[in-house]
Model the fold of this input.
Amino acid sequence: MAVPFKIYNTRTRKLEDFEPIEAGKIRLYACGNTVYDHCHIGHARGMILFDSFVRYLRHRGWDIDFVRNFTDVDDKIICRANELGEDPLALSARFIGEYRADAAAMGLDTPNKEPKVSDSMEDILGMIGSLIDKGHAYQNEGSVWFDVGSYSDYGSLSGQKVDELRSADEVAGKRSPADFALWKAVKPGEPSWPSPWGDGRPGWHIECSAMAKATLGDTVDIHGGGLDLVFPHHENEVAQSVCGNKADYARVWMHHGLLTMASGQKMGKSFGNVINVKVALEQFPAETLRLYYLQNQYRSPLPWGDEALPEALAMLSRLYEAREVAEAMGGEEPAANVAKSMGADALKLLELGESFPERFYAAMDQDFNTALAIAHLMELSRAINRFGNLKKANKRGGPVVAPALKAFALVTETIGLMRMTSAEFHADVKGKRLAAMGIEAAKIEKLIEDRGTARAEKNWARADEIREDLEAKSILVMDLADGVQWRVKL
Done:
């Protein structure tokens, strides 16, 4: 049975109890990328947010039909294709492939449907025709415009006032400056499709309205995207969908905050300040990005700086190391007996582990508060480390940490963190961080071998010298009973 939850609705500007159109089912539409270049880490926030959101709600019993589109017909695509001397549809198809590769590398599940504009022309033309028939759109010299004045609730999503607006389509032939293009008459060198109004291509906003209707129906439960889409894109989607379908378009509008630079400027290709997902994933495990985004509440702006991913990786490493400590503990006594006999740290850990599911669900069901959920997880990992320092914890502590291990498994299942074994995680860190630092693993192995030789020969000065050299390279050496291990210090 689907578990109720609360969600912030941009349209009403308040937290609401989610009420689905159909019991137990969620129709979710998220605006996807305009595919004219590689995904950057600003895009990745929305990609990972909705992947985690869907994972969690499916875990809570919801049947979710998740649709994320590809905008493969757009001004930006045409401009980039002209720069490269490439066919616009060929360019967009190439970057759809790159997008899917990035999504897979980040561990994202594939949405139920991924419609493309170029495959949706029949739906788009049908919706434009319906808007003309209903008196909400008009044609002029091969283009079709939405008549903003025909929709009395225009501005209800964004709070914009019609008399203060001017559309980006500043051309002759419009009745009002705020009117926006549904169909653009063909121009030389641009891709075009036939229509009752002449050859041309669709405007940006009608594309999503038509794809959402074709895949999910007249009304969706949740429509999502970045805050930068509230106006004009989502405002215009509302207007044309409500007028065309004669039905509410989206019950809930879910918008995530943007990545911002130290200057407060958002991250975007037009600002020249982007870092592509591919580059980030060459230097950091994919889960680093997931933790970086989820450690903040999704509606908040997320500051970006050079230390953002290193700090997130250090947090992720502490989680893996705490789980590793817990997994190594043995013992079969009743947990309560062990905790009572081992003192306050043991009792606290047992309490945190046993109460974790309740606290985790409470945070997540209150507007998907991953920031609070991860704070609970970090508190649990610190408690494991304190307990692990106690005498005999390794031999007797297994029952005490068992609830904590279940907590880690819950986080893995619901939001996709800590899906690797500890060995896989540390190998991933070694490979990517050493490459980022320009250090060869073979050279580290040789230094550790030389240190072992020096220790065997009781040349302690040389052994210490090598250890210091390794530490300077951010390499942590661990002399264990079963041999020497090494890791990259984070």
About this structure: The chain has a mean pLDDT of 93. The chain is about 50% helix and 15% strand. The first helix runs from residue 41 to 59. The CA atoms of residues 138 and 281 lie 48 Å apart.
